[in-house]
Amino acid sequence: MADTVGTLIAGNWKMNGLTASLSEVETLKNALSGADARECDVALCLPATLIGKAVDVADGVFSMGGQDCHTLVSGAHTGDISAEMLKDLGAIYVIVGHSERRADHHEEDSVVASKANAAIRAGLVPIICVGETENERKFGTALSVVEMQLAASVPDAAQEAPFVIAYEPVWAIGTGLTPTLDDIAEMHKSIRDNLVGRFGDKGAKVPVLYGGSMKPSNAAEILAIDHVNGGLVGGASLKADDFIEIIKAV
Ligand code: PGA
Fold it and tell me: Has residue 1 got a pLDDT over 50?
């Protein structure tokens, strides 16, 4: 990992967690409160229902994030949540463009860019997700697909605001499968070159996370790859003990 780039380990609980799950937040807080427990930023992107309570439980020891936001500040959009509302709950981050949102809610790159803009407008840090499907990997188009996603999902406003990229191969999410270390290295180098090409010095400092079946047993080798500046962790973030092992791997 390059020295100049911050490192972030972010959990993504997806649609999991009830009030009782706040005990995991508490366990994580206690583990991270100890001296020199970590060398990276830590966040949990929780269901919106838990963010406010989790912010209280974590007491500033680590950050909370949302998993999606609407493009607008407020209005007649039943069931949606705005970036401003997440900020109001104490969130610091919001995931936008996760492949599950792209698939389940037909979110195109242009929508993802609007959501990233909304996050920036609200003062949140967007974690903008990109990643190829299994067929795109098989047919050798993974690099070009991700390049197109970056071009269309990362808004120009990102030049002036903090943001994070998460590379998540769709076929690696929740499957136990991961790309080879060489393939991850190739993709992260390509993303870095792309960000530098578009954003100059700023692009050299944007954290680029890997996501997709990251777990305690593979975290250290993935996090050691050049231009991998942390992880977006789904299943293995639900249990604090597993998540802590991944944080320690940094
Ligand atoms: P996973 O999910 O770690 O369970 O594969 C990652 C993600 O979807 O962010």
Answer: no
